[in-house]
Amino acid sequence: MNIQHYLPAARLVADVLPDILAKIGLKPFISRYVLTETQQGNAWLFIVLEVDPLSHLEDYGSAEVLKYLSTSLNGMPVVISNSYGMRYAVLLSSPHLVKMAQA
Hints:
With about 100 residues, the protein is α+β, with helices and mostly antiparallel strands. The chain has helices at about 5-25, 55-60, 65-70, 95-100, and strands at about 30-35, 45-50, 80, 85-90.
């Protein structure tokens, strides 16, 4: 699979995610985006967050926030990792977001 195929979907997520976070009262401290593809052909967009040290990290990773992000992205799976910094991972290789980006 060609990762370039997912650039429109990645751009769409990058464009809307700061507004989605702000809408639910979270500051969108996004430092960078990383688009990658697994050996299985899944395309992931990682959104690396620079969360304010005074913020509650659990606010960014709660089940309710992850569900809201996923719903706002037309049902795309959104997971979080905070083992080496905080980041969201959005699965782009689902047909839902690819169709949305092509519309």
